[in-house]
Amino acid sequence: MPVRKGARALLSAGTLCATLSLTGCLLTGCASPTPPAPAAPAPSSSPAAGDGRPAPGPPGRAANDLASAPVPAPRIPGLGPATQALVPDGTTQAFVVTGATADSHTATATLYRRDPSGRWTEAAGPWPAHNALEGWTEDHNAGDLRTPIGVFGIGDAGGLLPDPGSRLPYDEDEEFAISGTGFSGEPLEGSFDHVIAIDYNRVPGRTPLDKERPLGEEKGGGVWIHVDHGGPTQACIALEREALRQLLRALDPAAEPVVVMGPVRRLAR
């Protein structure tokens, strides 16, 4: 398995209750030096509770006027609030990889960007992709043949071939050479011609070839985005060659890019 370098409007749609009380003026029979002032017109009373009509709001504003309520932050398409909350505030590029089910080894990958207004839009893709043979997991372990679910940084790249124009640090090294066959009998040669390290159980800022595992060897590592060899992976994400080269050229370290990956229903939480 490869390795590398690298609101909410909690709408207290609170109902404004106006309690209007009328004060009566009781006149005695005693004569008064000055005539009593006429009573002010009584305001109309509030609707009785339970009569089905909304209570009136403040003067000059409709009862359902929510103009001052906070506006929810826009979310990346397909992501639910819990997953979106894991995306750092400073991130303006997100590479989203979604599988149809928890056990599927094919996926769809799309690069999104956030514009100055905060809106997320497609920047590249969607592209077909492969993930691990057995699908996805929230508790990845070495050799389980599942891809870890989550939001991870992607800041380091490399490969056997020269840098295709990446803005990420790129480590060209012969150690990226690979041979053998995949799970479907397909040749693996060329799979690591270009790779992007996913910051799962690795030290960011280092080559994807770095072997340090902060969570321990048993939690796996070397999870990359690499060239698709035509079949499922051990834990990595695989993209067709030209799509990966396009992704490498698009990612910008200043955008604090992340990969968001997992089954579609899990990411929608």
Automatic annotation (TrEMBL):
PROSITE patterns per UniProt: PROKAR_LIPOPROTEIN (PS51257)
The leader peptide range reads 1-39
Show the segment(s) annotated as Disordered. Answer: 34-85
Q: Does the keyword Signal apply?
A: yes
Q: Which UniProt keywords apply?
A: Signal
Asked whether the UniProt record includes Ribosomal protein among its keywords, one would answer no
Q: What is this protein called?
A: Lipoprotein
Q: Which source organism? A: Streptomyces tanashiensis
